[in-house]
Amino acid sequence: MMSLSLPLTPLTPLPTAQMLPCHVIASIAQYIELGATTTPSVIKSGTINIPIPSKELVPLAAVCQSWRVIVDPLIYRVAAHCTSSDLPYTLSDTRIPKLSVAIERRKQHLVRQFYLFIDFSKLFTAESLMSFLDFAENTCGEMTSVYKLALIPTYSESMYLWQGPSESEAAESMDISTAMEKFFKCVRSLTPNARIVVTINGSCYRSNRSSVKNHDHAMALLPAMFAERTTQLVIDHISLSWPQLDKLVLGMLCSISISGYKGQQCHIELIQRHAPWLERLEMVKFTTQAIVRITWGHTPTSTCSYPKLKKLCIASVVGFRPKKMRQPTIDPFPALEVLDCQTCFPFTTSIVLEGRQSHLRVLKLHMDTELFGVMRDKGLLRESSFRKLEIISLGWAERNSIEGEKFSERMLLKSFEIGARTQVVYANRLTIADIDVVLPKIHFTSTLRALDFKETALTIAQAVVLLNGFPKLCEASLFLREVPGDRSRRMPTPEEVAQFNKRFIDCQSSVLFLNICKTQFVNSRRAGEFIVLMSDVLPSVICVRINCSTDTLTERVCKDIKFTLQREIYQNKRVQEIKFVQDIQFVEEI
Question: Nearest 5 degrees, angle CA 339-CA 290-CA 204?
Fold first, then answer.
């Protein structure tokens, strides 16, 4: 019997990418997700930030099944939905991930953060409510992976025109409490495993809500419906009610953010009631008196303590430091690791700062003459006085004052000195007349890796001198400007470029990444020219990110940088190997 012998087809080797371990794939995918050169990963939606997955993740999902298992949870980790078909402007952007897209692709089980916009213009009509209930139960189904649920009020109709249901619709309208109970029972079933419930008591609109019928009553019910699970509360420009406070479960709330103090005792009581469990507290547009009052105990000599508070943020303080007001007698924040007070410091006593030396990790503080003197006298400005300080920013609170200019050099020097293992230093709106004179006085730790001068203007010569003074820097953010008095519109001549290169021929800077956050030049063309000229003399730079005050200016500067690199004086030079990228995103999270 004759046997047929078929030729063997050699196996095509798999692409190396498909053979990578899953943890390597995940690392690659997350790097692309955070890539600042793609679409912004944060879209501001009134009082909340919605993280946006990068569109560059989508092609990765098509590589192979192994990649899809890793990438899909990153693409669909966030979803937003509005209770009505009239999408608010916050959801009109195509970059915001919609729940409907995840449902269409059967990926709703991957959603981990769910942002629900509640259209109060229509919620109380039977038709609108039943429509949402049907969608949740029959179209979407349970989203068991959701751990964070954000409830955000919005309005599809004008706040001034909408006065609740008309007479013809009144018969079809439901009692508010009944409607809200049905609605939130459905939402609880939709996200049964949500551990973080953020109830935002404020619309993205800043107009007076008194014209919206039943708004206050409905908003008062929001935390109540999730009282047993609410761990984060954000309140934006709205009054609180005592019944609302009473329904929040003690021991659950660990984060409070209040913007727009309305002078109510309720705001103070809210913070104090949850003091034993709070881990994060943010107060924006408070009076200095109100901030001091949160530390008052029940007796005239006692202090309200926040034993678990790790992060305290204070911004846009109204009023001056109340010198004659009752101050805390003991440290109210014994566990504080992050103090971010880039405004008038509200306390007259140094006791709030003295206990920080052993465990403070981040210190951002606006100083004034009095506060500087108190910290100096208490030994808080000595070298390495803060043993665990990693990030520091010492700015000046008194604007347009002679003291501000006089103290700028001291602020800069102290910023480098007081931390024992500082990694990042911010120069916050300081006026440095001569960096060559200041630099030899700076004592910095070997752990220093990043400088942030985006609020302190430097010429390119000053920037090179600064970066050359720190031998182990990895990253720097800069605000570049013209040489004072130079208003020329022409570009640097080849001779001037050669002189600049000769001046800094021995530059030993170790900086790998430059972030140009602001520019102040006669035009974008000169900005592009000087950025290239500065980058050319820095021997270690591999990437320069451009992020100016506006996206339009950023685009123009990037375009002019490309034009500059085509000049003959830059041909066959190392600057051609540097990657210049447009960075339209800056997100800072401590």
Answer: 80
